[in-house]
Amino acid sequence: MRVAVVTDIHGNLGAFFAVLADLKTQAPDQVVFGGDAALFGAHALECWQRVLELGWPMVQGNTDRYLANPRPALESMRRKSPAAAEHLERNLAWARARLGERLIERMTSMRTVIRVPSAAGPLLVVHASPGNDEAGITPDASDDQVDALLATVDARVLVCGHTHRAFVRHVGQLLLVNCGSVGRTYDGQPGQATYAVLDDASGRWSAAIRRVPYDERAAHRDTRARGVPLSEAFLDSLLTARDPAA
Cα 47 to the chain's mean position, in Å? Predict the structure, then answer.
């Protein structure tokens, strides 16, 4: 069985279309969406509509949760950083106005985890880490940090996203896979949309990160032209593929 996991589209339609074309060459038996479909991109509506049309099993990302219920996220962020909260509030308002209540409502029914059974052991898909859609796992996380986040995992494979930094790593008997990001990679490789393909054909799970080229400069121009209210640093991260908050 081949399972593809696609996550963190963030309204980047050009990158999403590139990944959809590449998926056809990989012919997975199942595709799972790992969350964060719309916010912070020029094509929030089009990306979320396409995800829904595809009918994939869906995990709710933190920004999907924010769009579905903005107030708790904004109140929490205001206590930490009023400037960041103001930026988030502007972008939530922009995206929600384009999505409309009916499509926003669909985000409320997204799951927090998808479990894929296999003779090689179960595969779990979460957005960031089990039980927490904001506690992301980065490639440079220590073994102790990873162990603390994965203490409750009962699976042979855990697949996540959220940090926008792709990697494949073994943690004891667990295969840990971060898909990176379709629409906003922070791997330092601009114009590369990333997702993961996993395979249990050998009786054990293996994983590969797919890096698919797209026109990041066109995405940057489009995002500015459509008036997405991003800070300059956040907008330019499309060109640098670096985390603007780092």
Answer: 13
